[in-house]
């Protein structure tokens, strides 16, 4: 077959060993100059491009690299800088760029929220009082760099205007058209300059088309792309979608672009093509390799799928690519020397996925026979992986099959059990707590590494953890917190830690992916049936509780988040795996309760994240998520208080699910949203207890007491005092000891003053 080429949508930014992260943090810590930061990150970016060229990718993306976030890059390129950062026009310098992302002593950072239904976070653009202008053509800069330094005729990647504006804030929905028109000339200028520079293909990312947009927005979008076509007629534009099929498929495939990128892993793109066809004048960019998971593709099945897709492409121009950018997966599995060989053979990280794409491209160009050896090896490795030990556990499968509605119900309704909890806990009005983790200092990380390397003994490491727990229990008591935490010093990550202790999981050594900014996580691998082995958190929680008369929370990660933040093999339904995890956590919660822990927090920061983009699929997802959480938590006694925590989200979409979790106390990450989430609780009556994060932990700035009082007071206008808890936005793992203590003291002082005012008012 002719006219078949390979492509990539985006490459991991962080480097094989997180070199990007270290460069950024070195700059923030003033260990690197701006010049040194640029030199180091330039080297990483060029190495990424060179690797893709060596693998054999035809269309290599340029402009997908960033110093923090690609949405923030788009904002900086268009001069979208909030007033509080004192921007006076022109190219946005690094100081302002990072200030928007991380905040300053005098200005809070811009809101951070999830990139569609992934664990990647982007910086939300703020359009209020902004006059956009093209400050710097970043795609052009990176296109020229790739061409001049590496001889690569790259494919510039641009975040499309519809997606960019729909992800922004600072304007009324009714004003969308007017705001859009202010940005179109900037995009037109950008595209014209790329055309003049000789660019062939340009990828315009519009993942928002996988959501249920109003028809009038689709009509406006078509007009926008007509302007793009007229302005740069020699550019070949790829309208790239991912994470879901296109909801308004019939309309969007008629846009005047040269190619449409579809996700054939998530959603029903193939069914849409079969039903409605595909236009004769366009190439189809087929995302057949999963860009969001790490398991080896069945190449035989993928070739068959591609042949079916190819038959629908009338002009026979096919581009083979991942389903999305590969920023959601680690760089390469080659560094994984500790993994079981069967599991490793079943893996495919970014580099390996690109190898798969090149192989499939060759197979379609020259026929299956040309890749017969690759197909044979692939089949053998998949068969070996499927025969791997610990993949199948009939006991837990039968347990899940036997579950019913009653297994996920507390014995008493909230209104009755909360009275028993109040009698037992004897907490003051507006109780204070933290979300869970405390600073993971360099000493903590180094000591853990020594222990893993065998440099120190188990006993020495355990004593080190105990010393840190004891130190921070005393600090929390001195600060004046009401409900304490043990600090999670023994945990590398809130999901990986449990992956190391549950059956059916595996963990990698270098399987890092970016979550936000320089923050990277290492998702565990779920390759088999999940089951409980032995207590995972009881020892540390019980030790912490023995040091104080105040309640110490047991800290667990919930089943939905463990699932969403793991790389899950897809041969078992996700709902089944989720319930297996819930059953394992249920046993851990029962063990905590049996050992005297009165409050157990089961965090679900990823519940909203996993919500399908297609509204038709959302109810089934939320119903399954609620059931799994309740399955994990429902067996406790009435007096045991269940907490949960959630991260930035559009909570109005999942309000009923939040209520349905039946947690006694929920804390929500809200400070960067500037109180907007409070409106959800203005529109609904929430009867359980709640803490809306009163300061932002993602920023190194220490808030003052009055700022926190203002956040608390704003919440108390909507939420009754008797229901309200006071806590930071999220865990404090990434903050220094000084930042943590300073911020918590300010929080306690604010809480004490408001508590005093409230008690006086009640009298």
From TrEMBL:
Which GO molecular function terms does the record list? Answer: 5-methyltetrahydropteroyltriglutamate-homocysteine S-methyltransferase activity; zinc ion binding
> What species does this protein belong to?
Oceanobacillus polygoni
Belongs to which family? Belongs to the vitamin-B12 independent methionine synthase family.
HAMAP family given for it? Meth_synth (MF_00172)
Task: List residues of the Cobalamin-independent methionine synthase MetE C-terminal/archaeal domain.
Answer: 430-752
* Name assigned to this protein: 5-methyltetrahydropteroyltriglutamate--homocysteine methyltransferase
The biological processes this protein is annotated with in GO are:
methionine biosynthetic process; methylation
Annotated gene: metE
* Record keywords: Amino-acid biosynthesis, Metal-binding, Methionine biosynthesis, Methyltransferase, Repeat, Transferase, Zinc
């Amino acid at each position: 077959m002719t006219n078949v080429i390979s492509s990539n949508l985006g490459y991991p930014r962080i480097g094989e060993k997180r070199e990007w992260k270290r460069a950024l943090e070195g700059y923030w810590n003033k260990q690197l100059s701006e010049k040194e930061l640029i030199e180091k990150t330039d080297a990483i970016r060029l190495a990424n491009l060179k690797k893709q060229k060596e693998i054999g990718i035809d269309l290599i993306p340029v402009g997908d690299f960033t110093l923090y976030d690609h949405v923030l890059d788009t904002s900086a390129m268009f001069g979208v800088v909030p007033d509080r950062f004192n921007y006076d026009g022109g190219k946005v310098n690094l100081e302002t760029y990072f200030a928007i992302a991380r905040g300053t002593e005098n200005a809070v950072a811009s809101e951070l929220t999830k990139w569609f239904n992934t664990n990647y976070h982007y910086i939300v653009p703020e359009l209020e009082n902004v006059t956009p202008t093209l400050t710097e053509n970043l795609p052009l800069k990176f296109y020229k760099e790739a061409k001049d330094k590496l001889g690569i005729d790259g494919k510039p990647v641009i975040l499309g205007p519809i997606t960019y504006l729909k992800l922004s804030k600072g304007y009324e929905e009714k004003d969308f058209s007017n705001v859009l028109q202010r940005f179109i000339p900037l995009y037109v200028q950008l595209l014209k300059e790329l055309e003049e520079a000789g660019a062939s293909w340009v990828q315009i990312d519009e993942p928002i088309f996988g959501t249920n947009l109003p028809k009038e927005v689709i009509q406006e979008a078509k007009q926008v792309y007509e302007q793009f076509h007229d302005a740069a007629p020699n550019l070949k534009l790829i309208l790239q979608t991912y994470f879901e099929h296109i909801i308004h498929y019939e309309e969007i495939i008629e846009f005047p672009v040269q190619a449409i990128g579809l996700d054939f892993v998530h959603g029903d793109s193939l069914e849409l093509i079969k039903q409605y066809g595909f236009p004769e004048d366009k190439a189809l960019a087929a995302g057949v390799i999963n860009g969001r998971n790490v398991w080896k593709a069945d190449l035989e099945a993928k070739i068959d799928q591609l042949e079916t897709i190819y038959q629908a492409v009338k002009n026979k121009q096919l581009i083979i690519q991942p389903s999305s950018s590969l920023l959601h997966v680690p760089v390469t599995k080659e560094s994984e020397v500790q993994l079981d060989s069967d599991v490793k053979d079943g893996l495919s990280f970014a580099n390996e996925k690109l190898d798969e794409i090149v192989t499939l491209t060759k197979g379609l160009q020259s026929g299956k026979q040309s890749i017969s050896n690759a197909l044979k090896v692939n089949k053998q490795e998949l068969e070996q992986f499927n025969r791997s030990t610990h993949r199948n556990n009939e006991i837990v499968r039968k347990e899940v099959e036997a579950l019913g509605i009653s297994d996920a119900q507390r014995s008493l309704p909230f209104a009755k059990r909360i009275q028993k909890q109040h009698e037992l806990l004897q907490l003051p009005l507006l109780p204070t707590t933290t979300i869970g983790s405390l600073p993971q200092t360099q000493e903590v990380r180094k000591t853990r590494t020594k222990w893993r390397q065998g440099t120190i003994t188990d006993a020495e490491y355990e004593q080190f953890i105990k010393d840190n727990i004891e130190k921070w229990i005393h600090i929390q008591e001195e600060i004046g917190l009401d409900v304490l935490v043990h600090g999670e010093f023994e945990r590398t990550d809130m999901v990986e830690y449990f992956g190391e202790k549950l059956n059916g999981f595996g963990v990698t050594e270098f399987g890092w992916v970016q979550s936000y900014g320089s923050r990277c996580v290492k998702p565990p691998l779920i390759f088999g049936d999940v089951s409980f082995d032995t207590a995972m958190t009881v020892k540390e929680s019980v030790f912490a509780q023995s040091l104080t008369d105040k309640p110490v929370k047991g800290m667990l990660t919930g089943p939905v988040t463990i699932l969403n933040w793991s790389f899950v093999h897809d041969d078992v339904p996700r709902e089944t795996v989720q319930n297996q995890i819930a059953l394992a956590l249920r046993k851990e919660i029962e063990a905590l309760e049996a050992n005297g822990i009165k409050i157990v927090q089961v965090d679900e920061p990823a519940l909203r994240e996993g919500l399908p983009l297609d509204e038709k699929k959302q109810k089934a997802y939320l119903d399954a998520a609620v059931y799994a959480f309740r399955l994990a938590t429902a067996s406790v006694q009435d007096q045991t208080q269940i907490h949960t925590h959630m991260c930035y989200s559009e909570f109005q979409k999942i309000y009923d699910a939040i209520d349905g979790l039946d947690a006694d106390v929920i804390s929500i990450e809200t400070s960067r949203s500037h109180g907007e989430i409070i409106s959800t609780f203005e529109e609904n009556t929430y009867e359980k207890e709640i803490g809306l994060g009163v300061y932002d932990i993602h920023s190194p700035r220490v808030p003052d007491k009055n700022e926190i009082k203002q956040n608390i007071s704003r919440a108390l206008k909507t939420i009754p005092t008797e229901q309200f808890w006071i806590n930071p936005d999220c865990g404090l793992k990434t903050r220094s000891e000084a930042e943590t203590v300073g911020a918590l003291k300010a929080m306690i002082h604010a809480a004490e003053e408001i508590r005093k005012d409230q008690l006086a008012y009640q009298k």
